[in-house]
Specification:
Distance between the termini: 49 Å
Shape: globular
Structural class: mainly alpha
Number of strands: 0
Number of helices: 7
Largest sheet: none
Radius of gyration: 16 Å
Strand content: under 5%
């Protein structure tokens, strides 16, 4: 069955859908075709579901994670807490080495979350400051403290939605 075929490389993700683009969520560039969208680090929300699935199945590389990390002020300790992977593993992984599928999925979810937060705050700095400050709507906890579970991410995303639409 063609739909179960695993992409051969990052460049194969998305082929057969009428367009070609690189699967690296961390490269600045564009997809070719009539509905071209940027693939820069913080445009994850604009990627198609099939594209995201292909990236996750293929495995996110350490280089891709580093590009995401470079767009934040998070250190390896913070990333390891959010991604549920040891700090040592994050540090020891080399450039083109790939994370396993569950870790790649957590990285993708986290990158999507960062993308959304940055869109809401229209500033990386303001968003990251907000992540570290306790929020009454989150039980007095800082949003960053809740990002280690899918339920926590969803709750923080709901709070971002309230901020985006001015509902306090």
């Amino acid at each position: 069955m063609a739909g179960n075929k695993k992409p051969q490389s990052n460049h194969d993700v998305g082929k057969g859908q009428g367009h070609a683009y690189t699967a690296s969520p961390t490269q600045t560039g564009t997809r070719q075709g009539p509905a071209a969208r940027p693939t820069a680090p913080f445009h994850f929300n604009s990627l198609s579901l099939q594209y995201k699935i292909g990236i996750i199945r293929n495995g996110i590389t350490k280089k891709q994670l580093e590009a995401i990390k470079s767009e934040t002020d998070f250190d390896y300790h913070t990333l390891s807490s959010v991604l549920l992977i040891s700090r040592t593993t994050l540090i020891k992984k080399k450039g083109d080495e790939k994370f396993d599928q569950p870790t790649s999925e957590r990285i993708m979810r986290f990158a999507e979350f960062l993308s959304y937060g940055r869109e809401v705050f229209e500033s990386r700095e303001r968003f990251q400051a907000w992540l570290r400050h306790p929020a009454a709507a989150l039980g007095g906890r800082a949003p960053l403290e809740l990002l280690d579970t899918l339920y926590g991410i969803e709750e923080v995303k709901k709070e971002l939605g309230r901020i985006e639409y001015g509902i306090y």
